[in-house]
Amino acid sequence: MGGLFKRPHWQLAIISGILMGVATQPFSLGFIAWFGLVPLMHVLLNSSPKNSARNAFIFGLTFHFISVYWIGNNSGASFGVAFASLIAAVIYLSIFWMVLGFLFSLIANKKSEILYLFPFFVVSMEWFRSFGPMGFPWLNLALTQSHYLPLIQMMEITGTYGVTFWVVAINGILYIALTNIGLAKNVYIATGVFFISLYLAGSARMNHLGEYNKTVSIGVIQPNIDPNEKWDRSSREKTIATMDSLHQVAIGLNPDLILWPEAALPIYFRINSHHKKRLQSIVDQSDIPMLTGIVDRRIIDKERHYFNGSMFFTPKEKQLFYNKVHLVPFAEYIPLSGKFPKLKSLNFGQGNFTHGSEFTVFYIDSIPFSNMICYESSMPRIARSFVKAGAQLLTIEANDGYLGNTAGPYQHFELARLRAIENRVPIVRSANTGISGLILPSGIVENKIMLGEQSVFLSQVFIGNGGSIYSDFGDIFAIICFMFLLLIGIHTWRNYS
């Protein structure tokens, strides 16, 4: 390892980027993240702030090109637009690491033994990166650990930031062992004890998650329809016939609810009353509620607005709606276009949807549940807001078909597992082309249907009261980390300036 540290710093940054990028892929290699940051740590501890910023940026470019390469594979946009989106996203995300590298190195040059602060820096960076319309908690380091369920159960308290903290801390401990041979044996023993303790505590928590006092059965439809053909008029009737056929199969399972995926039919239901009445008639006859993803069009203040939403059909009742609260920037809308409408005239191949404003709660008999639409499931604050509003079950309607068989759909499904653990609620996911399934509050997956399969399956869901410390208090762990870092930074600067 000493030979590794003799390499040029830009090479070490690239090596770290490759290791961390591979850890995010659906290869079950998340353990690489336990040491993937070690080369980057060496660079930041042995460089000027300027050089640290540059090499942290190189790390970010490498890491993000590998981890979110699928952005450039969006079949719903032209190659030029998709590739430009990838480049912009990679640069944007890498800037956060660049700032982190500069600030960490700035303090490191003024104070020795600074390595213990690195987990606080990374947690704070991830927390700041989650804010605003460009917020992107998708790549929080907890994503690399989603297959190691006993090791991430603390998320019901800390959210994903607790996992980030210990992953980065393990990297720091290993770096100390590699650079201080005399301490290596004790460090490795301490690391082993840590993992064993974390595993045992997490396993015990998974086995004692409380009582489930209600059950609900959900029929989930994964139609596997090419999203690029769905809105083609020549394919419209075929799409409707396919969904009707799968709906009948789901009815035959006699569930309490039938769940369709995002934008399941190429129809504006508010306008096309024929199809709305037809579906309502099927729901009335079967006596089984149905939730479907829709594209909604409404006139508000004499202006036409489009919403990516969901529509809840219940027997012999008026339909209820939820409109997606967090839209995908530059895909579903142009940021700031609400204040500057002329931005909508820009053509990146995006939709011009309007944000929803309410965290709607539906009911299956006496069971409150809420629905997240696709990208929303990557946002911890969105899931938490639904649970705080009373939801004891979360459903997800998704359409990852535009991304093909890339890492994107797999990462997206793993993020749903994190939301289940954070809020201790079951999650049922219906994706147009996959991946669909039932996720337990422990993060254990049942009834998983993979990409490219057409399927109708029944999920028997056990319902508890739902909610967790994270649901109640949100990102308090990240806030504490940031405040601690801020105090240390001020103290250090005063003592050495």
Regarding CATH, which class of the largest domain? Alpha Beta
As a percent range, the share of helical residues equals 40-55%
Q: How many strands, which pairing sense, and closed or not: the largest β-sheet?
A: 6 strands, mixed
Determine the structural class based on helices, strands and strand pairing.
alpha/beta
How much of the sequence lies in strands comes to 15-25%
Please tally the helical runs, counting DSSP H or I stretches of 4 or more residues.
Answer: 16
Which radius of gyration do the C-alpha atoms yield? 24 Å
Can you list the strand order of the major beta sheet? 5-4-3-2-1-12
CATH topology tier name of the largest domain: Nitrilase/N-carbamoyl-D-aminoacid amidohydrolase
Unreliable stretches, pLDDT < 50, 5 or more residues?
none
The CATH homologous superfamily name of the largest domain equals Carbon-nitrogen hydrolase
Distance between the termini: 35 Å
Overall 3D form? globular
Order of helices and strands: HHHHHHHHHEHHEHEEEEEHEHEEEEHH
- The beta-strand count equals 12
Could you explain how this protein is built, in words?
This protein is an alpha/beta fold and 497 residues long. It has 2 domains: 2-208 and 475-496, no CATH class; 214-463, Nitrilase/N-carbamoyl-D-aminoacid amidohydrolase (4-Layer Sandwich). Helices cover 46% and strands 15% of the residues. It is built from 16 helices and 12 strands. The chain has helices at residues 2-5, 9-23, 38-45, 49-67, 79-108, 118-129, 155-158, 160-179, 181-207, 227-230, 233-252, 273-286, 380-388, 407-423, 469-473, 476-496; strands at residues 214-222, 257-259, 290-300, 303-313, 320-323, 362-364, 367-373, 393-398, 427-431, 436-439, 445-449, 455-463. The strands form 2 sheets. The protein has a 6-stranded mixed sheet with strand order 5-4-3-2-1-12. The chain has a 6-stranded mixed sheet with strand order 6-7-8-9-10-11, with helices on one face. Helix 3 packs antiparallel against helix 4 (49-67) and helix 8 runs antiparallel to helix 9 (181-207). The longest helix is centred in the N-terminal third of the chain and has 30 residues, at 79-108. The model has no long low-confidence stretch (mean pLDDT 92).
